[in-house]
Write a structure and sequence with these properties.
The N and C termini lie far apart (57 Å). Helix content is 70%, strand content 0%. By secondary structure, it is mostly helical.
């Protein structure tokens, strides 16, 4: 495989992670991580929409991370990129991926038994927790190291500081904007039904 194809595949995987995990986590974190924001959200009269949103985003993040652990060497995953590393780097990256995999085990079980299948003896509903932040940070570090080792475009590196999606908007403003957007959508759906 030539380096251009490898870089194109990396960009596709990287973009997928950014859209399906990082951006979703960023929004989720802003909305649900502070006591003040949760109080604002709990004051919203339509709790069903909030619950659906929270569960959907949590599930999307879990599925997005799970894709990176795909063992099939043809799919864009840690395994795919690790197999293309110089031999001296491959073992180190495999150990780093295994460390993330261990942290992610409870989420993998939920994904396998609840999201992917309908296991009769599994009664679990998982929402992402603060440990997901550590997992995402570790994944970003691996991606950024791939960029250096494979000599990909340095502009693709992700930073974990935040600010890239909402600027430096205050969390309370984001929550209120979110509720206004939900209210607007609810009103539009009532108009369409009429």
């Amino acid at each position: 495989m030539d380096i251009n194809e490898l870089e194109n595949n990396f960009q596709k995987c990287h973009k997928d992670f950014f859209n399906k995990v990082y951006r979703q986590w960023y929004i989720y974190n802003y909305l649900f991580s502070s006591k003040e924001n949760v109080e604002i959200l709990n004051s919203y009269e339509n709790k069903i929409i909030m619950t659906l949103f929270q569960n959907s985003v949590s599930d999307a993040i879990i599925l997005g991370i799970q894709r990176l652990f795909d063992k099939d060497k043809r799919n864009l995953s840690f395994n795919y990129f690790n197999k293309r590393l110089p031999k001296k780097e491959e073992k180190d990256f495999e150990q780093r991926v295994e460390k993330i995999n261990i942290m992610f085990r409870a989420y993998q079980e939920y994904r396998h038994k609840e999201l992917g299948h309908n296991a009769p003896k599994y009664d679990g509903n998982i929402l992402i927790d603060e440990d997901i932040e550590i997992i995402i940070k570790e994944i970003i570090e691996i991606f950024n190291d791939y960029i250096e080792i494979f000599n990909f475009n340095e502009n693709e590196k992700l930073c974990f500081d935040g600010g890239i999606i909402f600027g430096h908007k205050d969390g309370e403003v984001i929550v209120k904007d979110f509720i206004e957007d939900i209210n607007s959508l609810t009103k539009k759906s009532h108009i369409c039904k009429s």
